[in-house]
């Protein structure tokens, strides 16, 4: 792929942000939509623009439990009014009788003629039942005006939005009962490695349980993808080629883990080059360096994209979060989310790795009112424990030593589950 991005001369690896740009550019959305009942569409990607059906709020209404009044009546009576009406939520729109106030509740329609609501705790009621108001009541106080949030016909949600619980709530608040969403992305998952066995199988020395498969199935499900799990494939070019061809038949994306590095037992790259092509291989991040994007088939356009994630479990996780996820989202027709990061002070010092941006798994502690990052545990790319404890990553630029008390870019982990 000719993108104008260059691998760093010294390492031959792509910069993380250049690699993300390539992933997003390569992620063509899949065709195919379906109409679903609103709640079944939760987590899916909207395929159509949705407009507001109603003004929001639909009528002027009270923001408080209290009394609705006409300011001119209050001025004329010297600060107290009799209660002449009672308006609960769900009542129709009424007119406020002159010279009195209305007992009103949160969300109830404001009576015509009223121009303020006073919360009940700012009032007192005398023995005769007159309500006494504070000296200053502002026009419009505690009134939620019709259409102040939205007017009917205005854009509610754009295509490409993921239907989060709040987006479902927004649609429900408009009375919308069904929506058109993109079909689910079909992702074929292949775990490679002679040593890799599934949980439940008997362990023998040298065997490694397939944690990547378990993790990626969860991560794919969290993105609303359909996972076609092809299980564990042994480290031979022939077995891998067979698995790739099978995956290609039905998937919108092939995701494999392991065998993507440079040893002679690592067959992903050569097999990919034989059955299709390679877009790039190797990103200047730690963990996650041996990451590959390519395609299976005659051309990128006619082929099926393939992402090779490293075998080391934390490298696989980081490769998914920083690179594969924006691709999956783009292929789902989602508007890609920029990487969220903000400065956080390091509570430790550490030597830098050469030529790679490091993603340290950290926990945030609060010290004197500000967050301070500490290492969540061992930082080896095979050490899942720290990845599991971490709140996020402290992202350290290549060749930069971490100095205690200095601030670095912190990427919250929760963003990768959105
Ligand atoms: N000479 C070099 N060796 C390595 C390099 C390099 O640049 N030159 N890169 C290292 C880095 S960085 C990483 S990360 C790993 C990744 O290598 P692979 O993607 O080829 O992965 P494997 O060699 O197949 O496995 C690595 C490691 O991960 C375990 N593994 C594999 N699959 C799974 C799975 N499904 N679940 C859990 N664990 C898995 C595997 O047993 C190995 O321990 O390469 C370095 N080497
Ligand atoms: O990318 Mo590897 O993850 O440094 O071990």
Task: Provide a descriptive summary of the structure in words.
The structure is a single chain. With 418 residues, this protein is α/β, with parallel strands linked by helices. The protein has 4 domains: 16-30 and 184-331, MoaB/Mog-like domain (Molybdenum Cofactor Biosythetic Enzyme, Chain A, 3-Layer(aba) Sandwich); 34-55 and 154-182, Molybdopterin biosynthesis moea protein, domain 2 (Alpha-Beta Complex), CATH 3.90.105; 61-144, Molybdopterin biosynthesis moea protein, domain 3 (Molybdopterin biosynthesis moeA protein, domain 3, Beta Complex); 342-417, Beta-clip (Beta Barrel), CATH 2.40.340. The chain contains 8 helices and 26 strands. It has helices at 16-26, 71-77, 165-173, 211-222, 237-250, 268-275, 313-331, 384-389; strands at residues 33-37, 50-51, 61-62, 66-69, 80-87, 101-104, 116-119, 124-125, 130-132, 143-144, 155-157, 178-182, 186-192, 196-197, 208-209, 226-233, 253-257, 276-281, 285-286, 292-296, 304-309, 342-346, 357-367, 370-375, 392-396, 407-412. A 6-stranded mixed sheet has the order 7-4-6-5-9-8. A 6-stranded mixed sheet has the order 16-13-17-21-20-18, sandwiched between helices. It has a 5-stranded mixed barrel with strand order 22-24-23-25-26. A hairpin with a 7-residue loop joins strand 20 and strand 21 (304-309). The longest helix has 19 residues, at 313-331. The protein is elongated. Mean pLDDT is 95; it is low at 1-6. Molybdate ion binds next to loops. InterPro entries: MoaB/Mog-like_dom_sf, MoaB/Mog_dom, MoCF_biosynth_CS, MoeA-like, MoeA_C_domain_IV, MoeA_C_domain_IV_sf, MoeA_linker/N, MoeA_linker/N_sf. Keywords: Magnesium, Metal-binding, Molybdenum, Molybdenum cofactor biosynthesis, Transferase. Its EC number is 2.10.1.1.
